[in-house]
Design brief:
The chain has a single domain, classed as FAD/NAD(P)-binding domain. Helix content is 35%, strand content 27%. Strands 5, 6, 13, 14, 15, 16, 17 and 18 form an eight-stranded mixed sheet that branches. Strands 8-2-1-12-20-19 form a six-stranded mixed sheet. A hairpin with a 2-residue loop joins β14 and β15. The longest helix is centred in the last third of the chain and has 29 residues. It is globular and about 60 Å long. It binds flavin-adenine dinucleotide. The site of flavin-adenine dinucleotide has 33 residues, from α1, β3, β13 and α7.
């Protein structure tokens, strides 16, 4: 018997476990991957928003991340029209536009934090065989022969969530005819902490800055094209990127292997069910065009931790439908908005239609010259709009970044996590 069972001890599940354990709840985490198996790198360089920064800082995870690259400028351009817009850190107060963190590093540090709590028990490597829910409890039976019991079970088990399927929650889903190719590239010119999003007709080509003269690439391309690009030699692949992106970062060299991810949308019709709540990719999967999946997942974590710790302090039943409904109500809008926004971006940009080209042309002009609109978009991407739960609201008021010393990759002395 425990207060909460979390199935999936990954990025969102692990973070949620820490947020709840910090408030004194007993948490059981089940994950199919053992904690001591080496964290496999999946190639992703996560662009994290201000809201994610606050959540991870509040839990003391941020300060343990030693390789974080601030983003001070985002250059977006159309692959067909001579149109571009820049989003600049000068447009917002209090620090950079976002940060880039390597996926394996983030996973390892979240796990390290999980281990620091005596009131978290990790059941791994074990996967869920069966979930049963009654009026009072949720039971999880694992393939390790254990049965866990709690008033609430949380599904943080990713985009193919087993628990969501068991609960028969209906899904709205569609897939894109696109695959994301992910890799790292070194370049002869410094990125100066700039991220680039180049909207080509068959899919966006995005670079985020990594330490040194290296950037993380996410290139969404049609499936057939992806097969061809993945089969190219490292030199030919780098030349292909060069041909599509140009030389503003100098000469490219492939510096990692290439990973590929099929892209789809999955939106559960409910975020809750009897004694069950969904978070992270189990609650929403969308196109990575805006680099927002994990940021939205961390906001689920923040709101759910907010709702559950309040219920816990009042001695309420943690799995009561009123508690779960509060969570769903607070998260629905952000999740639907981000799904529609990312889908709209893919449809408007990954397109050769002349009508849509005109729409894009007008859109770029409006965003470029209407400053309040640009600021609103930045604040939305940074997760700074809407309801701010306690997990990051309090942190925000004390957020006083000091400039980082000027370096080659940081010519403006951009804020760095060590200084906040
Ligand atoms: C190409 C690409 C680039 C992206 N870039 C960004 C970005 O820049 N910024 C951003 O915010 N987001 C980005 N995302 C989205 C981000 O990767 C996801 O939102 C995030 O990884 C979801 O984390 P999660 O913890 O919810 O799920 P996962 O990371 O999938 O974790 C699920 C966990 O559950 C465990 N599990 C699964 N099934 C079971 C089971 N049956 N029993 C026990 N355990 C189980 C797994 O072992 C795992 O530990 C990107 C996505 C893609 C595809």
């Amino acid at each position: 018997m425990t207060d909460i069972i979390i199935v999936g001890g990954g990025l969102t599940g692990g973070t949620l476990a820490c947020a709840l354990a910090e408030k004194g709840l007993q948490v059981a985490v089940v994950d199919q991957v053992g904690p001591h198996s080496p964290t496999p790198t999946d190639g992703r360089s996560f662009a994290l928003s201000r809201s994610s920064f606050h959540i991870l800082s509040k839990l003391g995870i941020w300060e343990t991340l030693d390789d974080v690259t601030p983003i001070t400028k985002i250059h977006t351009s159309d692959g067909v029209l001579p149109q571009w817009v820049e989003f600049n850190e000068m447009d917002v107060t209090g620090g950079p536009l976002g940060y880039v963190v390597d996926s394996a590093l983030l996973k390892a540090k979240i796990l390290e934090k999980v281990f620091s709590f005596k009131n978290i028990t990790l059941h791994a490597p074990q996967s869920v065989l069966r979930m049963e829910r009654t009026d009072f409890h949720a039971f999880i039976e694992t393939n390790g022969g254990e049965t866990l019991k709690a008033p609430l079970c949380i599904a943080a088990d990713g985009r193919f969530s087993h628990l969501r399927t068991e609960a028969q929650i209906p899904l709205i889903k569609w897939s894109y005819d696109q695959v994301a190719i992910v890799c790292h590239l070194t370049h002869t010119l410094p990125h100066n902490n700039q991220a680039f999003e180049h909207f080509l007709p068959w899919g966006p080509l995005a670079f985020v800055p990594r330490p040194g003269n290296e950037s993380g690439l996410v290139w969404s391309v049609e499936k057939e094209k992806a097969d061809v690009f993945l089969a190219l030699s490292p030199e030919d692949f780098a030349a292909e990127i060069q041909a599509h992106f140009g030389d503003c970062l100098g000469q490219f060299t492939l510096s990692s292997k290439r990973w590929s991810y099929a892209l789809s949308v999955c939106l559960p019709k409910r975020l809750i069910d009897t004694r069950l709540a969904l978070v992270g990719d189990a609650a929403h999967t969308f196109h990575p065009v805006a680099g927002q999946g994990l940021n939205v997942g961390f906001r689920d974590v923040s709101v759910l931790a907010d709702v559950l710790t309040e219920a816990f302090s009042l001695g309420l039943d943690l799995g009561a439908s009123q508690v779960l409904k509060t969570y769903q109500k607070r998260r629905r809008g952000d999740i639907i908005a981000m799904t529609l926004l990312t889908d709209g971006m893919v449809r408007v940009f990954s397109n050769q239609s002349r009508v849509l080209a005109r729409v894009r042309s007008v859109g770029f002009g409006v965003v470029k010259y209407v400053t309040p609109l640009r600021h609103m978009m930045i604040r939305h991407a940074m997760g700074m709009r809407g309801h701010a739960p306690f997990l990051w609201a309090r942190e925000r008021s004390t957020f006083q970044p000091t400039p980082k010393p000027i370096s080659k990759n940081n010519p403006k002395g951009a804020t760095h996590k060590k200084s906040v």
